[in-house]
Write a structure and sequence with these properties.
337 residues; Rossmann fold; six-stranded antiparallel sheet; Hnrnp arginine n-methyltransferase1; five-stranded parallel sheet; elongated
Length: 337
């Protein structure tokens, strides 16, 4: 293929194409499989609830390598339909054959919205749909559409509950390294890049000791009833300072619950919880807050899919703070991509 032909091919590919192709590479699945919090929570939810799965029809939305389908087969499901739009489905089909579950699991390549199952309804939908900040690059709209089309009345979604939280953190050293650095790069002014750095949230591990306020819940989702429109939201937050310190950024994380299990199963991606590949999402503030214990950092956060690429997120954070040493009333815009 000539260089010109290659450029034309790349031009024809959409951001969605690149998204699905990225999930065809085994490396991203290795990271997810090795995330013990993630994978063991799903295994526990399925294998410790065999009574729920026995002789049931199961739909695995975004099956990846097929690990959740394999768990469901082990739990005694009558049949599992494993759907993925990425070419990883080819490896999933081979993995399923190599583990002697081809009679129990049917792999189907395509977008869930376009797939036609050979059954009218399923009893259970399983999916690992969560992204950074819960909603980034998320498959949740696809899961909800699959629920509305394929899940029988009273059917089960695993997991089915999710919450997002915010808190403030002291992060002066890292802010200097990642943001302030651009003010002076070998004697040159690179502040135009600093503006870009402020707009892009950082996905990284936050030390629990860096958190300086109590958390504030900004979103609760019940997958049994929520709609795609609920994923575009505006929410108030109020974080109470737990120590006298500085606040350089706002950190976000989420938790997940499998509430329909015999004994509900829960995990969190908070700074104080065990590491997950989702880490935490950090929104740096342009102005550092000087806070005293008991003071309140409040505001409004708004989140919506990006107009150019719906898998990216436009996030607006307005902060209201009236403290002993400082006041701040400001809005910052971010793009998670």
């Amino acid at each position: 293929m000539s260089e010109t032909e290659n450029k034309l091919l790349q031009k024809e590919m959409t951001s969605s194409d690149y998204y699905w192709n990225s999930y065809a590479h085994f490396g991203i699945h290795e990271e997810m499989l090795k995330d013990s919090v993630r994978t063991l929570s799903y295994r526990k939810a399925i294998l410790e609830n065999k009574a729920i799965f026995k002789d049931k029809l199961v739909l695995d939305v975004g099956c990846g390598t097929g690990i959740l389908s394999l768990f469901a087969a082990q739990a005694g499901a009558a049949h599992i339909y494993a759907v993925d739009s990425s070419d990883i489905i080819i490896q999933a089909e081979q993995i399923i054959a190599d583990n002697n579950f081809s009679d129990k699991i049917t792999c189907m390549k395509g977008k869930m919205e376009d797939i036609e199952l050979p059954v009218s309804k399923v009893d259970i939908i399983i999916s690992e749909w969560m992204g950074y900040f819960l909603l980034y690059e998320t498959m949740l709209p696809t899961v909800l559409k699959a629920r509305d089309k394929w899940l029988k009345p009273g059917g089960i979604i695993l997991p089915d509950q999710a919450n997002i939280y915010l808190a403030c953190i002291e992060d002066g050293d890292y802010k200097d390294e990642k943001i302030e650095y651009w003010n002076n790069v070998y004697g040159f002014n690179f502040s135009c890049i600093q503006k870009m750095a402020y707009r892009e949230p950082l996905v990284d591990v936050v030390n629990a000791d860096s958190v300086v306020t109590a958390p504030s819940k900004i979103l609760s989702l019940d997958l049994n009833t929520c709609q795609v429109g609920d994923l575009t939201f505006e929410s108030k937050f109020s974080c109470v300072a737990e120590k006298t310190d500085y606040a350089h950024a706002i950190v976000a994380w989420f938790d997940i619950t499998f509430s329909r299990c015999h004994k509900p199963i829960y995990f969190s991606t908070s700074p104080s919880s065990k590491y997950t590949h989702w880490k935490q999402t950090v929104f740096y503030l342009r102005e550092t807050l000087t806070i005293c214990e008991g003071e309140i950092i409040s505001g409004i956060i708004g989140t919506a899919p990006n107009a150019k690429n719906e898998r990216d997120l436009d996030i607006s954070i307005h902060v209201d703070f009236e403290g002993k040493y400082q006041s701040l009333h400001a809005t910052q815009e971010y793009v998670l991509r």
